[in-house]
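Milestone 3.1: sequence recovery, worked example.
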């Protein structure tokens, strides 16, 4: 507010016209702060800083609040409108304001209940964002209803075969469940994630997901593995883990990363694109087994146990051979027969799995598409960075950082222009919208994980470049190709979220997050315009835009910000960060005041840096609670927030 309002000439003019303005340093005058914070908490039910009080000349408050932007923003009343209305009320109905102030003071002083807030004359200032909230919430609800109707309650997933994972639909439902716990969104997510993890679409020997299932129960996949599917599915399992703390979710995400870092990572750190379905001209040949092949690797007793658990039979479940899977639930009988839990059975088969993997490695592998795409690498950077946040893994963080360095070194020209593809030293094709949008997403997740200012600065630079090259000044939204690209019959523009989210969808969320990170209204206005530009298609078929709707959910939801002030190398900072990310906070932003971020985010200087300790500022709706320094204090703060 200091930057947005108190240093603004228009706000100053209104303040000087109607008010005597007093700015209080709460550390110098804790008595004043404490007194009027009590009024704010009584009037609004909450408090925090900044604290905004309007009072009579006798120091009796008739209005209290916390954060107010200069003009209406994020759905908040603006200071300009508020000051004008209060000034007018004081001139036309001063007695009403004084009466309200007397009632408030008397009630707080005596400990009685306050008068109904509707008696406060300025509490009815209209919020013109209500219409935005109205259509937005309606679209989100319609999308959920459509998905719930098409949900396969027996096997998980949506619609008819073939079944695609579409993980952005699941992450939309996780966000929906935050506001609608009474609905079945979490149940839908749980059934679908479990079904995929049990089925043959998941590689139980070498890890990673195939592209889609040819049947309704996730048993028989199209065996091709895509980098983008595994990136987005890792994100979905990690977010589900944040919500439910189901250990299997974390395990699946970790196994996806094991697969990608082992098989799909170049020596330079970039990620390859895909692995084919075929080997030696036969689809799935690399992945399927007979009982005899298992028995040739494992001892007889272990082989029998493995085959029983993973449905490997003489008859076969795929063209006379077997796709390992856990769908039949044979593990329950094996567990009972051996007086073990199902988890203990699977753990006892980990060494046999490794032996089968080593044997499978001797087979002729499917062809690997070793081109490195900027867009898909951005998705995997986002997933690995999220893995570092949630699981606290330095391995994942280092892999995300190395891939980022590779992309920015090999796939970004000296003039800043992103390129789309790299292979064996050759960089080609001007980057498309998805290259920019997905990489910016990855950078924002990476900054949230490591706090290095140059990562956020690079994201901002790329967003500026994206706006310059791709924005449609006439029709709104972003074209798929840049203004410097080859001229085609027309410039395509995509918003539909299919197997991959669209660049326009991810951009809407990127813009909102950049606005929260930087406090720059320009990004907020662009984000709101992006949502409005695509309102008609969202309303018409919302379930086809579940990535886009996550930006809408972000815009509609109260914000949460965590500022960690202190050295990035301190012991407490990563502990606090992981505590924060141990639960699902999809509408939160994390910033790090490490001494140089103010070059990019000017307002961060208002959060003092103490070199001797980490200070955590937890803010909601741009209103901050009392800062804390110890990890246990921070834990308590989170539990009570």
């Amino acid at each position: 507010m200091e930057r947005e309002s108190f240093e603004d000439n228009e706000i100053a003019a209104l303040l000087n016209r109607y008010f005597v303005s007093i700015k209080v340093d709460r550390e110098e005058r804790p008595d004043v702060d404490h007194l009027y914070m009590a009024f704010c908490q009584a009037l609004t039910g909450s408090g925090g800083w900044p604290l905004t009080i309007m009072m009579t000349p006798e120091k009796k408050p008739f209005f209290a609040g916390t954060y107010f932007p200069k003009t209406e923003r994020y759905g908040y009343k603006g200071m300009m409108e508020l000051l004008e209305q209060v000034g007018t009320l004081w001139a036309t109905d001063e007695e009403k304001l004084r009466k309200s102030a007397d009632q408030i003071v008397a009630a707080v002083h005596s400990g009685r209940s306050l008068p109904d807030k509707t008696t406060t004359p300025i509490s009815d200032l209209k919020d013109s964002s209500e219409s935005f909230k109205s259509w937005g919430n309606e679209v989100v609800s319609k999308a959920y209803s459509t998905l719930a109707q098409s949900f396969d309650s027996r096997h998980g997933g949506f619609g008819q075969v073939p079944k695609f994972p579409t993980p952005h639909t699941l992450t939309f439902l996780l966000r929906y469940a935050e506001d609608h716990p009474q609905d079945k969104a979490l149940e839908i997510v749980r059934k679908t994630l479990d079904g995929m993890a049990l089925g043959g679409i998941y590689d139980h020997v070498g890890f990673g997901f195939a592209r889609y299932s040819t049947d309704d129960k996730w048993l028989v996949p199209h065996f091709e593995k895509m980098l983008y599917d595994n990136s987005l599915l890792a994100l979905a399992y990690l977010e589900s883990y944040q919500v439910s703390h189901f250990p299997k979710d974390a395990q699946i995400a970790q196994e996806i990363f094991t697969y990608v870092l082992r098989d799909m990572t170049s020596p330079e750190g970039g990620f390859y694109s895909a692995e084919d379905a075929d080997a030696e001209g036969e689809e799935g040949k690399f992945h399927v087994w007979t009982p005899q092949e298992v028995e040739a690797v494992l001892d007889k007793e272990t082989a029998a146990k493995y085959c029983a658990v993973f449905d490997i039979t003489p008859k076969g479940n795929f063209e006379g051979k077997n796709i390992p899977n856990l769908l039949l639930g044979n593990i329950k009988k094996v567990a009972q027969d051996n007086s073990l839990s199902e988890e203990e059975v699977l753990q006892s088969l980990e060494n046999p799995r490794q032996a089968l993997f080593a044997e499978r490695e001797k087979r002729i592998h499917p062809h690997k598409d070793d081109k490195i795409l900027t867009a898909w690498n951005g998705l995997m950077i986002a997933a690995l960075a999220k893995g570092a946040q949630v699981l606290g893994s330095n391995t994942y963080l280092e892999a995300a950082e190395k891939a980022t360095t590779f992309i920015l070194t090999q796939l970004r020209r000296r003039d800043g222009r992103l390129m789309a593809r790299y292979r064996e030293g050759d960089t080609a094709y001007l980057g498309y919208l998805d290259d920019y949008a997905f990489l910016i997403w990855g950078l924002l997740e990476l900054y949230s994980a490591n706090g290095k200012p140059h990562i956020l600065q690079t994201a901002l630079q790329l967003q500026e470049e994206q706006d310059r090259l791709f924005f449609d000044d006439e029709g709104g939204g972003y074209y798929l190709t840049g203004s410097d690209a080859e001229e085609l019959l027309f410039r395509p523009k995509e918003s539909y979220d299919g197997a991959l989210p669209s660049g326009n969808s991810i951009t809407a969320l990127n813009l909102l997050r950049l606005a929260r990170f930087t406090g720059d209204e320009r990004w907020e206005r662009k984000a709101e315009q992006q949502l409005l530009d695509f309102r008609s298609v969202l309303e018409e078929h919302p379930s086809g835009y579940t990535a886009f709707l996550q930006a809408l959910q972000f815009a509609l939801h109260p914000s949460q910000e965590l500022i960690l002030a202190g050295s990035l190398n301190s012991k407490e900072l990563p502990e606090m960060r992981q505590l924060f990310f141990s639960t699902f906070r999809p509408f939160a932003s994390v910033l790090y005041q490490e001494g140089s971020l103010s070059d990019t985010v000017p307002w961060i200087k208002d959060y003092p840096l103490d070199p001797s300790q980490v200070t955590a500022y937890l803010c909601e709706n741009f209103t901050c609670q009392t800062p804390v320094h110890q990890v246990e204090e921070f834990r308590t703060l989170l539990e009570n927030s």
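The chain is about 50% helix and 10% strand. Residues 287-362 form one domain.
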